[in-house]
Amino acid sequence: MYLGQVIGTCVATKKVDGLTGVRLxxxxxxxxxxxxxxxxxxAADAVQAGPGDxxxxxxxxxxxxxxxxxxxxxxxxxxxHVDSVDLLEEDSx
Amino acid sequence: MYLGQVIGTCVATKKVDGLTGVRLxxxxxxxxxxxxxxxxxxAADAVQAGPGDxxxxxxxxxxxxxxxxxxxxxxxxxxxHVDSVDLLEEDSx
Amino acid sequence: MYLGQVIGTCVATKKVDGLTGVRLxxxxxxxxxxxxxxxxxxAADAVQAGPGDxxxxxxxxxxxxxxxxxxxxxxxxxxxHVDSVDLLEEDSx
Amino acid sequence: MYLGQVIGTCVATKKVDGLTGVRLxxxxxxxxxxxxxxxxxxAADAVQAGPGDxxxxxxxxxxxxxxxxxxxxxxxxxxxHVDSVDLLEEDSx
Amino acid sequence: MYLGQVIGTCVATKKVDGLTGVRLxxxxxxxxxxxxxxxxxxAADAVQAGPGDxxxxxxxxxxxxxxxxxxxxxxxxxxxHVDSVDLLEEDSx
Lengths: 93, 93, 93, 93, 93
Hints:
Structural class of chain A: mainly beta
Number of helices of chain A: 0
Oligomer: homopentamer
CATH architecture of chain A: Beta Barrel
C-alpha cells in the first residue's frame, strides 16, 4: 500500500456499468515526509474520504476487495485514513 | 486508475482468439494538469471512446472485468470518459 | 498492453514443467514513434511471431489467458501482430 | 520479493472492514547493499516485525496469501525476517 | 518475464508458514546485453539455480504457478536457466 493525499475529484458520467455508484477521487501519492512523489492516480473511495484528506491506498487487483461487490474494474482504492505516520528518529529527518 | 487521452488506433488483424472483436486504442497517460507522462499504452475500449477523448483507464487484471467476457487477455481498459477533474486550489496551479 | 518489437529468441532447455512447449522471444518495448523504451522482456509467443516482427503484448497475470492451458507461469505474452498504428496528426510528429 | 527495512508505523483508525486487526508498518525498500531505493511503502505485517527490522516483502495480490483470511485488500506484506544476504564476491563490492 | 543473474542467497529463518521449504535467491535483473538494470530482487527458485547462474524469472502472481503448491506468497520466481539469448544483428551491438 502507499500513502497519498486526496487532491480532487474526477467527474465521469459515461463509464462502464461496473463502476456505477463508485466514487472516484484524484490522489497524489506521497513519501514518508509527506512530499508528492510520482504521478496522480484516480482511485475508488471505500472510506468516505474527501479532498485534502491523508489516506493510504491499495493497488493491483486487491483494490476491488475493498468493496462489497468485488467484481468491479478498479486497480486503486482508498482503504484507510492516516491519523499519523510514526517514524524512527533517523528516518524522520 | 489513471488519466489518459486517446491518441490513435492500433490495427492488428492477426491476434489471439480472445481478442476478436476487442477494439484497441493507443492512449497517452496524462497527469493532473493534463500533460503527457510516461509511455503510450495499447488499451481495450469498453466505453466507445475515440481519438482525442479524455478518459480514465484501469490496469492489471482488473481490466478484463470491464468486458462481458472477462476471460480475455487485456491488462489495460478504457472504463470511463472524463468530464472534468476538479482539483483543490493549491493543486491546480 | 504495450507495443514492442521481437529482437531475438531465448534458448532455455532447463525450465519448469509448465513452460514446456512455450516459445520464448526477447522483445524490446517501443513507444508510439516506434523508438525503444525501457528494458527488453522475455515474452511467451501466442501468435507465431518472429524476430523483427512488430507486435503488442499483454502483461501481468492476463498473459496466461492467451494460451489454451492458462495455468502456466508467464507474465508477458505476445498476443497480436501490429499492422499499423494510426495517430492523431499532432501526436505523430 | 524485495528487501526492506521497517522505519515506522502507520496509525489508521478509520479503515475498511477487511483491514481490521491488520498491523500496518512503513517500510523502506533496500538494495543489495542495504541502501534505500525508491519510495516507502505501507505493508501489512505477517511476521511480527517492528521498527528497525530487516525484512523481505511480497507485493501484488500475492500479499494477501500471507494471511489466514486471504480475502483482505493488501498489496504488500512483510513475509520474513532477513538474517543475512550472502552475495557473490564481485557483487558485494 | 525478464532476464537475471543469481548473485546470492537470502537467509531467512523466521518467515510465514507458506514459505517453508521455499529457497530464496537474490537476483540481479539484466538487459539484453547482460548488463545489470534496476534493483535486485528476492526470488523463489523453481529450477535448482545457484549463484552465478543466468536465469529468467516470472513476476506478479504468476510466480506461484511455478510451484506444486501454488498458494504460496511469492511474486518472483526463477522458472528457467538461460542457455543463450540470440539477438538480431542490429540489436546485439
